[in-house]
Amino acid sequence: MRRSGRAWRDQASPEVDPAQRETVRVRCQRFDDWRRAARVEDIALMIDVEGAEDRVVAGMTDTLRDAPPAHIICETTRATAAHRMLVDHGYTATELERSGELVNLLYSRSVQR
């Protein structure tokens, strides 16, 4: 799957002058597809994707079910779909740090394989 930077333009910081924004094409791949192709089993994960955390977590549902990381750090809030999806997969959230509305949460779960 390919997406252009244009799909993310709405995510740009409001402080950035629209005349100074640029479009960058990036190759995107679902996390589940990448993990299978790379044959990765044990992972440590930090998710900080400027407002697209819900999309990232949605793209890793197979991993969360079949090979869940013991810990995930995610910059999100408890009011997001990303938080709900992680909790639904058995994770508990602990606040690590807060800067204004931004929160780094540590999601932990017992991993049984």
Main sheet overview:
4 strands, mixed
Q: Which regions contain 5 or more consecutive residues with pLDDT less than 50? A: 1-10
Distance between the termini: 30 Å
Dominant shape? flat
Structural class: alpha+beta
Helical coverage, percent range: 10-25%
Mean pLDDT across all amino acids: 82
How much strand content do the residues show? 25-35%
Spatial arrangement of strands, main beta sheet: 3-4-6-5
Radius of gyration: 15 Å
Q: How many helices in DSSP terms?
A: 4
Domain module count: 1
Oligomer: single chain
SSE ordering = EEHEHHEHEE
Instruction: Please report the total strand number as a whole number.
Output: 6
What does this structure look like?
There is one protein chain. The chain has 113 residues and is of the alpha+beta class. It has one domain (2-108). Helix content is 25%, strand content 26%. It has four helices and six strands; from the N terminus they run ββαβααβαββ. The protein has a four-stranded mixed β-sheet with strand order 3-4-6-5. The protein has a two-stranded antiparallel sheet with strand order 1-2. It is flat and about 45 Å long. The two termini are 30 Å apart. The model is unreliable at 1-10 (pLDDT under 50).
